[in-house]
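Contributing new records

If you add data, match the layout below exactly. Sequence lines come first and carry their own label; structure lines follow with theirs. Keep one chain per record. Anything else will be rejected by the validation script.
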Amino acid sequence: MILFLAGLQSVSPDVLEAATIDGAGPVRKFFSVTVPLMKETFVMVIATLIVAAMKVYDVVQGLTGGGPNNATQMLATYMYSQTFQYNNVGMGTAVACVMVVMMMVVIVPYVSFTAKEK
């Protein structure tokens, strides 16, 4: 929420005033002016949330250990259980590789998007 608040504060009041002069209502100003100007904020927040969701191993393992009948099993806890509990190193490695690919799909566009010079 703090990131979205910072993104909202970065929207120039001059642009919103110009949209009002052009006859845009509050809803049109939000969807046609504010949301496009906050594109960088949305990309950053979504990338951060996806990366944080992949790192949730400690909470799940500490609270439920995968839960009853694997109800709270995540990729990280599944990888751990396959590798160390069931001694299935191949499956654990495959899950780790899938996690790396999923993270790269998120992180590479995020880094390239934020590294662009304006």
